[in-house]
Amino acid sequence: MRLRPSMRENYRYILTRVVSAEQIDAKDIYLAISDTFGSLFGEIHASCAWVAVMEYKIPYTIIRFRRGYEQKVEAALATITTVKGSAAAVHPVKTSGTIRTIREEIHKRNFSSRPGKVKINGEWFSAEIRTDNRIDLKEKGINPNIPLYITEEDIEDLHYDE
Predict the structure, then answer these.
(1) In 40-54, which positions are buried (b, 16+ CB within 10 angstroms) versus exposed (e)?
(2) pLDDT at site 92
(3) pLDDT on residue 112
(4) How confident is the model at residue 119, as a pLDDT?
(5) b/e string for 14-37 if b means 16 or more Cβ within 10 A?
(6) Most distant CA pair in the chain, distance
(7) Cα gap 17→61, rounded to integer Å
(8) CA distance linking residue 76 with residue 30, whole number of Å
(9) How far apart, in Å, do the first and last CA atoms of the chain sit?
(10) Are the C-beta atoms of residues 34 and 46 closer than 8 Å to each other?
(11) What pLDDT shows up at residue 7?
(12) Residue 101: strand pairing partners
């Protein structure tokens, strides 16, 4: 039997960035979080929070827990100093009520960009140079009626000025 939405548990999700010198997996992160949460707030609060690691794709982790424990989970994440015996840190990035929003944030962060300038046909334009080898022109002087496409061959010929 399926529960109605009003009767289901409300979860929250935290996107975290894990910094570690050694290779770790989701189980190691879960054990570190549950250990610090239990030592900070006790086993009763740890069992009520229902902390779980949903996904781990280096360097980001999605952590699920019950609503109302946001501050306690973030405090537990801040106190993590070791994972699997090696120095590590777990930094909270974003908290959300849906896992979809967290996944969108991961996608945004994986395709980050840096500002720069691009020379096209002798003119310099402001641009956002993305890590996935795409360039977004930001110059206001470009005529919006004339489409300007940059191919992979053009990217090799462009001159960057950061």
Answers:
(1) ebeeeebeebebebe
(2) 93
(3) 67
(4) 73
(5) bbbebebeeebebebbbebbbbbb
(6) 67
(7) 6
(8) 12
(9) 59
(10) yes
(11) 86
(12) none
Q: Using H for helix, E for strand and C for coil, what is the string for 88-104? A: EEEEEEEEECCHHHHHH
H-helix or E-strand spanning residue 40: helix 26-41
Starting at the earlier edge strand, list the strands of the sheet with 113-120: 135-137, 123-130, 113-120, 159-161
DSSP state of 7: G
Distance CA 88, CA 56 (A): 15
Q: What is the pLDDT of residue 15?
A: 95
Task: Return averaged pLDDT per consecutive 10 residues of the chain, 162 residues in all.
Answer: 83 93 91 94 92 91 94 94 91 93 84 72 73 66 55 61 53
By DSSP bridging, strand 52-57 and strand 113-120 are unpaired
DSSP conformational letter for 68: T
Angle (CA) 23 132 13, round 5°: 55
